[in-house]
Amino acid sequence: MSSTEPTTPTSAFTPTPTTSVVNDSPQATLGKDDFLKLLVTQLQNQDPTNPTDSSQFMSQLAQFSSLEQETNISQSVDGLASTDSVTQGLDLLGRQITYNGSDGKPASGTVDSVAITSNGVTLDVGGVSVQPSDITNVGLAGSGTSTGASSSSTN
């Protein structure tokens, strides 16, 4: 009685196992261009006597398409978040706010302008730059009444 055991085909193109290395640097991140280059290189260097299975190829193309869509969605969400913070900053124009000053003590004033910087939205209150996260209370300018938009900062 003979039994056949499954064997894996070996060829000169069979990759040898390697140890994995984790690199957390920003340059180590692979993007969609890198994925496409790897896919093209794989196709160029495949064994002509044992070409890549078409279902594997389609699976890789589907992964590439999915990666591209996720990247586009991520960029759209980032854009919406940026637009939302600008809109919230603009809503504070002319409002009386109370905020934690740079010395940690509460200060207040009217929002004179809104600036969009590389760090996000910054409010100008009487010549002082205020981050929205430092705001503890928002009221109507000149009335001293709060609009109920009070928040506490845990920074």
Alpha-beta content class: alpha+beta
pLDDT average, as an integer?
A: 74
The main sheet orders its strands as: 4-3-2-1-5
Q: What is the tally of beta strands?
A: 5
Descriptive overview:
There is one protein chain. Helices cover 33% and strands 20% of the residues. It is an alpha+beta fold and 155 residues long. It has a domain at 94-155. It has a five-stranded antiparallel sheet. A hairpin with a 2-residue loop joins strand 3 and strand 4 (128-130). The protein is rod-shaped and about 80 Å long. The termini are far apart. 6% of the residues are buried. Residues 145-155 have low confidence and may be disordered.
Gist of the model:
With 155 residues, this protein is an alpha+beta fold. It has two helices and five strands, in the order ααβββββ. Strands 4-3-2-1-5 form a five-stranded antiparallel β-sheet.
List keywords for this structure.
five-stranded antiparallel sheet; alpha+beta; 155 residues; 2 helices; disordered C terminus; single chain; 5 strands
Give the helix/strand layout.
Blueprint: H1 32-44, H2 54-91, E1 96-100, E2 106-117, E3 120-125, E4 128-130, E5 135-139
Antiparallel strand pairs: 1-2, 1-5, 2-3, 3-4
